[in-house]
Design a protein that fits this description.
The complex is a heterodimer of chains A (104) and B (713).
Chain A (H helix, E strand, L loop, with lengths): L1 H4 L2 H21 L3 H26 L3 H31 L13
Helix pairs in contact in A: 2-3, 3-4
Chain B lengths: L5 H20 L2 H28 L7 E16 L2 E13 L1 H24 L5 H23 L3 H19 L6 H32 L4 H10 L9 H16 L8 H4 L5 H10 L4 H8 L1 H5 L2 H22 L5 H21 L3 H28 L17 H15 L5 H16 L1 H26 L23 H9 L20 H16 L14 H10 L16 H28 L1 H10 L1 H8 L4 H72 L7 H21 L2
Antiparallel strand pairs in B: 1-2
Helix pairs in contact in B: 1-2, 1-4, 2-3, 2-4, 3-4, 3-10, 3-15, 3-20, 4-5, 5-6, 5-10, 6-8, 8-11, 8-13, 10-15, 11-15, 13-14, 13-18, 14-15, 14-17, 14-18, 15-16, 15-17, 15-20, 15-21, 16-18, 16-20, 17-18, 17-22, 18-22, 22-23
The chains are: A mainly alpha (104), B mainly alpha (713).
Chain lengths: 104, 713
């Protein structure tokens, strides 16, 4: 019965909320660490979606994919934090408004 | 006799050897030897051929050799339908050409021998060049006299003109010599033009160019006694050619200037052989000419007038070679007089005797010039008799011969001409006798001024340069100085040891020619003197087409008494001339100066040669120059103008095309670039470098796509 209470729609609403929170974080915050964390939120929103549908459709591929996403996210976090560290050493800041070297 | 083609070929070979090899590598002796050997060989062949010709019966003394085809048959329109224009390398030996080859090779050989000594002061290559030209001349001259058709004759005709030009201009560093060469060549060209037209007309009329065929056909045609028909036109054109080559009025002006050449050249080309080519040509076409009496009259008048005019100029000239040159012109006038009055044999006879004594006189004058170290002005000579005994003796023989003193050769030939002229017209005879008087006078004036009286030339010996030798316009020393590339001893260089007799190589030809000048006349002793006029009967077949018509033009004969009277009279005239000259220039030298003062006007006219050169310069030459200038102006203004106009149009067109290119084509390209640049100012605003902006735009993009996907389905 509990399964009936929590339908895929709920999961998707949660996932969408989480995704939107992530997107807002990415777009609006200025601290790059926060942006990074927001990206993690987006990835996890996707993971919720994948796991939800895996359960719904009784297909394990979704879970496997979710695991991959987690692994890639970890790797990405490692690389991203490295870049941030290097940037910080040069600029003494983590404000994304300062990161406009690719400007016209 | 079948080897007569060797006669021209041998000197041609000599010319080729000397010209191709000799100029670079022969010594003076070798070059002279090659040339003389070629001539001597040609002489030997000629003598043998002539001997064989004499063996033939008188009516059949003609021998044709066709060596090769030259011009294959080309169909050409003629009066009698389509004829075939063709010419073989054909040679013809008959009495006339037989006499000519003997004269050319005989006198030619002697002059070659003479030249080996005379040209000794020239440079090594210069000697070979000289002999090469001289041999080449003999080649062409023999081609001229031996050819059996008009075209072979024409090749020789032009060739001798070429060699004459080359040899007159032999000392080409001297402007006067180079100019004289050009004058001779161009004046001859005028005559050659007439000759060529005559040959064209002959082919158009007869359809052939073979001498014998033309003669036979012409003999069948009626004599153009009344009118001026095609035969007269042919003969007049041919005679124009003869006036050029044989220096007759109005084209005689080149011959006196031709004396700029070396003296052996003057002797061979401008006295003995080439200038008689015109006489030979008229004799060769005797049948044609005898059918055109009107032209014959012109020939006789031109001849006698030339004789008179040239002799009168010769009276006052001071250059020894110029006197002889005018004498040559005058004697050629005699020959044409003979041709004109129908005495072809007499003309040819005089040609032969004249070849002997005039070559002798020229070589003698060369010997004098040689002895005087290049001096040619007779006013600077005198008293040379004791220094040049052989030259004096031989020249005296030549002078007596040309003056017509019996029994020397000139007497017989000249009196034959005068006698025949007397039968034809008393006026022509009168002018001829006056000329004979003048001839005797100016020739003895030459002898007197040169060999008698006090010596008036430059001083020699230890006294240094002496009497102003620097003013002399001596061809010889100039040429020697210009050519001399090595210093060899003797005359011509450095010290001059006074007048001296010439070496044997020069005196031997003089003596040989003197013998010729004495005996040559004995072939033509007229019947009035108990002779039989051998040469006239010998030559007669060459002047008639066939015996059938021989009786048609029976020559009028006066009695022997008249002939004898005429002879005595002309000998008397010669004696008067001689004694006058003796008186004026030896016994009373001041008389001539007084006469020149009293008759200053006529003297000046004669001394300046009737101003003929000046008149030609003012009319013909100035006219030619003016028309050339006119054409040049036309060329510059109209032809060049058209070319320049075309160029100008092209430039303008190119300029317009350039404008189009720059503004229209480049403009379009630049516009595209400009538009890209301007638009980029606006579009680059998107490139903020802020990742969040990009992300936002991506988001909007996703919204847009999803919206389209959802709402437009």
């Amino acid at each position: 019965m509990a399964a009936d209470l929590i339908t895929p729609t709920h999961y998707m609403l949660l996932s969408a909320a989480l995704f939107m929170i992530g997107v807002m974080g990415v777009l609006l915050r200025r601290n790059i660490i926060i942006i990074f964390m927001s990206i993690e939120l987006i990835l996890n929103a996707v993971n919720i979606n994948l796991v939800a549908f895996s359960a719904e459709l009784q297909n394990v591929v979704g879970q496997v994919f979710a695991l991959f996403v987690i692994a890639v996210a970890a790797a990405e976090a490692a690389v991203g934090l490295g870049i941030i560290l290097a940037f910080y050493r040069n600029k003494e800041t983590v404000n994304i408004d300062e990161m406009n070297l690719m400007r016209w | 006799m079948e080897y007569i083609w060797l006669i021209p070929l041998l000197p041609g070979l000599g010319a080729a050897i000397n010209g191709l090899v000799g100029i670079r590598s022969f010594s003076r002796q070798t070059a002279g030897l090659v040339a003389c050997a070629a001539m001597a060989a040609a002489l030997a062949v000629s003598v043998v051929a002539f001997w064989q010709l004499l063996d033939l019966p008188a009516d059949h003394r003609a021998y044709d050799v066709v060596l090769a085809d030259w011009i294959p048959a080309i169909p050409l329109q003629t009066v009698g339908g389509v004829g075939s224009f063709q010419a073989p390398w054909g040679f013809r030996l008959d009495p006339l050409s037989g006499m000519m080859i003997l004269v050319v090779t005989g006198i030619g050989t002697l002059i070659h021998v003479y030249s080996t000594a005379y040209m000794h002061d020239e440079s090594r290559g210069g000697v070979a060049r000289f002999f090469s030209y001289l041999n080449l001349f003999c080649f062409f001259m023999l081609l001229l006299v031996l050819g059996n058709n008009f075209l072979v004759m024409f090749v020789g005709w032009e060739g001798v003109g070429l060699c004459s030009y080359l040899l007159i201009g032999y000392w080409y560093q001297k402007k006067s010599a180079a100019d004289a060469g050009k004058k001779a060549f161009i004046t001859n060209r005028v005559g050659d033009f007439g000759f060529v037209l005559g040959v064209f007309l002959i082919f158009y009329t007869f359809g052939t160019l073979d001498f014998r065929a033309v003669q036979d056909m012409a003999a069948e045609m009626p004599v153009e006694a009344a009118g001026f028909g095609v035969l007269s036109a042919i003969c007049l054109l041919l005679f124009v050619g003869a006036t050029g080559k044989s220096a007759q009025i109005p084209l005689y002006v080149w011959l006196p200037d031709a004396m700029e050449g070396p003296t052996p050249v003057s002797a061979l080309i401008h006295a003995a052989t080439m200038v008689t080519a015109g006489v030979y040509m008229v004799g060769r076409n005797a049948v044609l000419f005898s059918h055109a009496p009107m032209v014959m009259e012109i020939v006789a008048v031109v001849g006698v007038l030339t004789a008179l005019v040239a002799a009168s100029i010769g009276l006052v000239q001071n250059d020894i070679k110029r006197v002889l040159a005018y004498s040559t012109v005058s004697q050629l006038g005699y020959m044409f007089t003979a041709m004109g009055v129908g005495a072809f044999a007499a003309g040819a006879f005089h040609l032969m005797t004249h070849a002997f004594f005039k070559a002798l006189l020229f070589l003698g004058s060369g010997s004098v010039i040689h002895a005087m170290n290049g001096e040619q002005d007779m006013q600077r000579m005198g008293g040379l008799k004791k220094h040049l005994p052989v030259t004096f003796a031989t020249m005296l023989v030549g002078t007596l011969a040309i003056a017509g003193i019996p029994p020397l050769s000139g007497f017989f030939s000249k009196d034959e001409i005068l006698y025949r002229a007397f039968l034809h017209s008393k006026v022509i005879w009168g002018l001829g006798v006056v000329t004979a008087l003048m001839t005797a006078f100016y020739m003895f004036r030459l002898i007197s001024m040169t060999f008698f009286g006090p010596y008036r030339g430059p001083v020699w010996g230890g006294g240094g340069p002496g009497g102003g030798h620097d003013t002399s316009h001596d061809a010889h020393a100039d040429g020697a100085a210009a050519h001399g590339d090595d210093a060899h001893g003797g005359h011509g260089h450095g010290a001059w040891h006074g007048p001296h007799e010439s070496p044997t190589a020069m005196t031997f030809p003089l003596m040989a020619l003197a013998v010729g000048a004495i005996v040559a006349g004995f072939f033509g002793i007229p019947a009035a003197l108990g002779g039989s006029n051998v040469i006239e009967h010998f030559l007669e077949p060459s002047f008639t087409a066939s015996t059938a018509h021989a009786g048609e033009h029976a020559v009028a004969h006066a009695s022997h008494a008249v002939e004898l009277g005429l002879m005595v009279f002309s000998v008397l005239m010669a004696a008067v001339g001689i004694s006058l000259a003796w008186r004026f220039y030896v016994t009373q030298p001041d008389v001539s100066a007084r006469l020149a003062e009293r008759w200053a006007g006529p003297h000046r006219v004669l001394f300046n040669k009737y101003y003929v050169d000046e008149i030609y310069g003012a009319t013909v030459i100035a006219g030619t120059a003016a028309s050339a200038r006119g054409l040049w102006t036309f060329d510059r203004q109209v032809v060049d103008g058209a070319v320049n106009g075309t160029g100008w149009v092209t430039v303008i067109g190119a300029w317009m095309s350039g404008l189009t290119d720059r503004h229209v084509v480049d403009g379009a390209v630049n516009l595209v670039g400009w538009m890209a640049q301007e638009s980029s100012y606006w579009f680059r605003r998107f490139q903020t470098g802020l990742v969040q902006n990009y992300a936002l735009l991506m988001l909007f993009g996703v919204f847009a796509f999803v919206s389209v996907y959802l709402f437009t389905r």
